[in-house]
Amino acid sequence: MDSFQSDTIFLQGEFLSSEQKILICSSMKTLRDENKLKVLKFWGRISGIVNDYYLLQGFTSDCFRNVKYFYSHDLIDWVRLPRVEPEALRLLDDCTSLFTGIPSHVFTFMSPLDQQEVRLKEEDRLTAAVVVINNEMSIIPRSAFLIGSYNQTMKNKMFKGLPFDKSADQNSYVHFEDLRGSKVMFPLLDSTNTIETDFPPAWKLQHEQEGQVAVVRSQLWPGLTFHHQVDSPVYGWTYFGDGRRNWDICYMI
Amino acid sequence: MEAIEVTEEDVREAKNALDPRVVSVLTKLVSRLLHERPPDAFDILEQLVISAKNDEGENQPDLPPEIPLQNAKLIQSFYNPEHGELKELNAAWLDRPPQVMPWTSCREQLCLLKRFAGIGIPDETILLLSLSMQRLQQQHQQIYRLRFWGCICFKWYVLEAELTPQGFVSRAEEVDAAAKQAQALTKADWEERKKEAEETGKPLPEPPFFSDIPIEPSGTGVNSMVYLVSSEPGLPESWTWLPDLTPEDILKARQIVQFPEDIEGDCGASGLCKEVILRAQIARINASTRVAPQGMFKMKKKLAPGEEEDEEDDDDEEDEDEEEDEENEEPKEARLNARFKLPALKQLVDMNKWVHITSFILQSQGRVKWWNPNPDADEDEEDEEEEEEGEKKAGPEKSPKPLSPIAQDEASPHLAQGYPTCWALRKVSVLGPPAVVARSLIWPGSITLFYSGQIEHIYIGWGVKTSSNHYCPPLVPEVAVEPAELVLSNDPTVEEEKAGLAQDDEDEEEDEEKEDEEDEND
Questions:
Q1: What are its GO biological-process terms (chain B) (predicted)?
Q2: Which of A114, A225, A251, B410 is the most buried (most CB within 10 A)?
C-alpha cells in the first residue's frame, strides 16, 4: 500500500478524497506501463488559483538521475513535465506570485539579479519548484536506505522502523541525497546531513496518535509533511502547498 | 554486475575492524547455511539473519504502542461511568433536546469533510474530539452549542462555543471587571514608579496609554463566539478558554508575522501573550473566510438561542436600505434561509455566487462595528477647534455590505498575477456528487465545503496570512570609488577665506543688479 493511501494516520490539512485516490491508483498503473518505470510515487499537489497540479514522481533504475515527473489537473489526463531549465532554477525564488494553474501562463516580474523584467513560463516554474523541493526536502529515517554492494542506492529490507525515543530526535531524519562515492563506509547510515543541521531550523517534529506516528513538517516550504509510523517500516512524504518558499521564515520562527 | 573477490586477508581484516556482534552473526549465518543447506536460502535470507540475531539476544519482542495512561482512563470513563458525578451528568444528558448534541454534529462535520474535501483527520482524533466536546457541554451549563473550528499549527485544536445569553452577559461582566482591575493596577504601578523616579532624580516613566476604543462585549462583533483551545483533544481538563479581544489586540496582532507556535511569553514590544495572538488570528480568519453560496443565508434579526424564528420577518428584511441598517441598532446575523434552492453546479463554481457571511474587522479600529469617537460632532464649535489643531475629522470607516460576494475580494496583483482573487473554488469530483470546496488563498488552510444544502467550514493550517511582499533589508550601497585624479591642495587660511567670502558677496550684488535692469527693460 503506497503511503498516500494511509494518509489518515496523522493530522493533515487538505489531502485526497477517496475518489481522488482511486483515480490516482488507476492512473499510476497505466503510466507505469507506458513509461516503463520501476517505481511511481504520488509526490503531492501544488495549488494554483484557477487549477491545481497533482504530481507523480517516477523512477527508472536510479533514484537520482532521470527522475520523471507527471502532472495533471483532474487526475485523468497526465502530462510529463519537461526537463528543468537552469534559467528557471535561477529565477524560481524571485517569482513570488501564486501559481495560476494554467501551464502556458507567463509570469513577468522584476529580477533583482538581472535588474530588469524577466519572463518565466509557468510550466518551467513548476518543474523548477518540484525539482528544488525534491532535492532540498527529501528526508528519510536513518538506515532506511543503503548503498548496495553494486553501488546502487536501495531500500533497506531490514529496516524495521525507528524506536520511539529515536523518532523524537531530529538527528534520526537524514536528507536523501546521492552519497555514492563517499569515503565513509556507510554514508546513508552515518550521514550528518540531518534536519537538525539545516539552516534555517524550520522543521517541526511532533508525535501524533498517542505517539504512534512521528510527523515532521517543514515551515520553509509550508505543506511539506513527512510521516513515519514508529517501530514499523512505514514512512513517506508529500507536499501539499502552493509551491512557494516561505521567505519570511527568519522573522517567523 | 561485477563479482566481488574476497581474500583471506579481507576476512581477517573484517574480524578486527567490524563490530564483534556483526562478526558472530555472520559466522552463525554462514555456518548454518553450510550445514543445513536450505534449498530456498536466497528467499529466506533475511529470516536467517534475524534468527541468528535472535540467538544473540538482540531482538526484543514487539511491544504494543503505549497509550498515555490519562487517555486510556478517559476513554474508559466515558464507557464505564461508575463515578457518581458522571452518572448524574450522563442521566441529565439524555433529557437534553437532540439537536444540541455535539457528538453527532462533530462526527458529521468531520466525516463529511473527510469524505468529500479530503481533509485528513484520523478517525481516532474525531472520536476523542467528540467525546471531549460532549463532556465539556455536560460540565459547563453556559455552553449552548459547540463546534469544532479547526486546528492551528497542527498542534492546537480549537472549539467554537456559543453561550446562552446569560452566559454572554456574565462573561462580559467578568471581562469588564478584569479590564478595570488591570487598568487600576497599571496606574498604581506607574504612580509608584513616578514617585521613585522623582525621588531619585531619574527620568519620569511614560504614563500608561489606555485606548478609548471600547471592547466589543461578549456575544457581539469580534467576540460573538467564545473559543477553547487544547493540544490534547482527548482530555476535557486540558481545554483552556481563550480571552475576549480588545480592538488594540487585533491592531497589534496584524503586525505580528511569527508562527503562533513559536511565540514565547510576551511577544516583544506588543506585549501580547500566545493566547491573545491565537484568539486574534482566529478572529481574523473568521472575519475573512466564512463564506457560503448566495441565498443560503439571509441577514435577519439576531435570535437568542432557543428562540423560534418569526416567519413574518422574512419578507420585511429584503427591502431595507443600507442607511436604515446603519441607524437600526438591532444586531443582525446571517441565518439559514429556509427557502434556499440548491443552485446548479455551474453556479456554485462561480465566484460571484458566493458571499461572506461574517462581517469584516475594520482596518482602523479592530472592531466589527464602527465606534464613533466624537459623538457630538454636529456642533460647529468642535469642528472649528479640530480644524485649528490640524486634525482631520475621522469619518466612519465603511465596511463592505453584509453578504457581499467574494468576487469583490481582490488580492494584491503582486501575489496573484493575472487572476487577482483571494479564493479558489473547486468541484469535488468530476462525475460524483455536486459538492464544491472553497479554499482561501489568503489564509491557506481555510476550507469551506458545500454539499447538498450543507455547509461546513474548517481551518487547518499554520495560522499565518499569505504574503508576497517579503521584507528584505536594503542592500548596502556599493563602495564608492576614489576619484582618478586626487588633487591635493592646502587648507585656506582665515584671511583667504574672508577674502573669498567678500568676493562672493560682490558677485551676488552684481547679479541682482543685472536682474533688476532686465526686469525694468521688460
A1: axoneme assembly; cilium movement involved in cell motility
A2: A225
Question: Given B125, B426, B429, which is nearest A19 (Cβ)?
Answer: B429
Residue B454 makes CB contacts below 8 A (sequence gap 6+) with: B112
Q: Cis bond leading into B247, ω under 30°?
A: no
Residue type (1 letter), A193: N
Does pLDDT of B416 surpass 80?
no
Q: What is the DSSP letter of B15?
A: H
CA–CA gap between residue B259 and residue B153 (Å, rounded): 8
Q: Looking at A45-198, list the stretches that DSSP marks H as alpha helix, in order from N- to C-terminal side.
A: 86-91, 122-137, 164-167
Task: Please say whether the beta carbons of A213 and A10 come within 8 A.
Answer: yes
| Burial class (CB within 10 angstroms; exposed 0-12, middle 13-18, buried 19+) of B192 | exposed
Q: Distances from the Cα of A204 to the Cαs of A113, A173, A201, A252, B274, in angstroms?
A: 32, 12, 9, 13, 18
At B325 the pLDDT is 42
ipTM of the predicted structure? 0.90
Rounded distance between C-alpha atoms, residue B432 and residue B114, angstroms = 15
Under an 8 A CB cutoff, do A17 and B261 touch? no
How far is residue A16's CA from residue A223's CA, in Å, rounded to a whole number?
14
Give the pLDDT confidence score for residue B94 in this predicted structure.
65
Q: What is the pLDDT of residues A39-83, one digit of tens each?
A: 899 999 999 998 999 999 998 888 888 899 999 998 899 999 999
pLDDT tens per residue across span A206-225 = 888 777 889 999 999 999 99
C-alpha cell at A183: 569515503
**Most confident by average pLDDT, A64-78, B20-34, B369-383, B463-477:** A64-78
How confident is the model at residue B389, as a pLDDT? 40
**Interchain proximity A14–B120, CB inside 8 Å:** yes
Distance set, CA A218 to CA A145, A195, A204 (Å) = 22, 10, 6
The three grid cell numbers given for residue A83, joined into one nine-digit string: 526537463
Question: Between A and B, how many residue pairs show a Cβ–Cβ distance under 8 A?
Answer: 143
The closest alpha carbon to B285, from B424, B465, B468, belongs to B465
For CA atoms A171, A172, A177, A182, give the dihedral sign.
positive
Please list the alpha-helical segments (H only) found in B363-469: 380-389
CB contact under 8 A, A52 and B258: no
| Minimal CA separation from A68 to chain B, in Å | 25
Residue range B171-191: mean pLDDT, rounded: 88
Sheet-wide strand order for B156-163: B240-241, B226-230, B156-163, B143-152, B454-461, B446-451, B435-440, B423-427
Q: By the 8 A CB rule, do A224 and A30 touch?
A: no
pLDDT bin (cut points 50, 70, 90) of residue A7 is low
Work out whether strand B354-356 and strand B454-461 pair parallel, antiparallel, or are unpaired: unpaired
Which pLDDT score, from 0 to 100, does residue B78 have? 65
| Contact list, B66 vs chain A (CB under 8 Å) | 164, 210-211
The x, y and z cell numbers of residue B112, run together, are 463529511
Distances (CA, A) of B425 to A90, B151, B411: 32, 22, 15
Per-residue pLDDT at B6:
78
Beta carbons of B414 and A96 less than 8 Å apart:
yes
B235 touches chain A (CB under 8 A): no
pLDDT for A71: 95
Q: Computed from CA positions of residues B416, B284, B444, B276, in that sequence, does the dihedral angle turn out positive or negative?
A: positive
Q: Quick one: average pLDDT of B143-165?
A: 89
Rounded to 5°, the CA angle A32-A34-A35 comes to 70
In the chain, the amino acid numbered B479 is V
Q: What is the DSSP letter of A32?
A: H
| Yes or no, beta carbons of A215 and B154 under 8 Å apart | yes
Per-residue model confidence as pLDDT tens digits over B68-93: 555 666 667 666 656 555 566 666 66
Confidence of residue A145 (pLDDT cuts 50, 70, 90): confident
What's the average model confidence in pLDDT over B155-177? 89
The pTM of the full predicted model, rounded to 2 decimals, is 0.79
Per CB-CB distance under 8 Å, the chain B contacts of A231 are 62, 65
